[in-house]
Write a structure and sequence with these properties.
alpha+beta; 6 helices; elongated; 4-stranded antiparallel sheet; about 210 residues; 5-stranded mixed sheet
């Protein structure tokens, strides 16, 4: 959720809903200046799962009290690709899939929980704290760590002197999430979070 919240401008607009993350920047550019963007812009960087029916994965509906018809429920106001309440000649429905069903905007899954780990380069003695998703494999964590060490793939990754399986998650590698314990015992997470030690191999692989 924190990573999504950073993308909250017109030039970089992400939202999350129903467990996935979407980059709606192209949609904002396509409909630039359209008043129907307002509800989307107001929720930039936020989770909008409450807009949707989790069973149908479509916008919530309700019975319109005036017409007695089933219509989309949009308490923040009508937005892009939602039809008007009454027939109009200036609204076309030839856009194909509505944006909330279009996979081109999807950028990834929303993590159920994130956790902090310390990555220690035993060659240089540099230590880097990294917030990662609990669902990520070590290979995916390596990709996050590349910004700090472009040769990260040239190291053997170990925990408690045991080689880690890079295709598995931290939990699957026997590295438990102790955030709740740190909170209950008031221990400093930055000092006592689980660490991964990197041991340099004799090559320079750069990804």
């Amino acid at each position: 959720f924190e990573e999504v919240s950073l993308h909250n401008t017109l030039g970089d607009l992400w939202v999350s809903y129903l467990g996935k993350v979407y980059d709606l920047t192209p949609l904002v550019n396509e409909f630039k200046g359209d008043v129907l963007l307002k509800p989307i812009i107001e929720c930039a960087g936020k989770d909008i799962s409450h807009w949707f029916d989790p069973k149908t994965k479509d916008i919530l509906t309700h019975i319109d009290p005036l017409s007695g018809c089933v219509k989309y429920y949009t308490p923040r106001g009508r937005f892009v690709h939602v039809p008007p309440p009454c027939p109009r000649t200036d609204w076309t429905n030839d856009f194909g899939r509505p944006w909330w069903r279009d996979t081109q905007y999807e950028v990834g899954l929303l993590s159920v929980k994130t956790r902090w780990i310390r990555i220690i380069n035993t060659l240089t003695s540099q230590e880097q704290g990294l917030e990662v998703c609990s669902e990520e494999t070590l290979n995916e964590i390596l990709q996050r760590y590349l910004r700090y060490n472009s040769h990260a793939a040239s190291y053997t990754w170990k925990h408690d002197c045991v080689n880690l399986d890079m295709s598995k998650t931290l939990e699957e590698n026997g590295i438990p999430d102790e955030d709740e314990d740190f909170y209950n015992t008031r221990m400093d997470r930055d000092l006592f979070s689980q660490s991964i030690c990197l041991y340099f191999n004799d090559d320079l692989t750069e990804l």
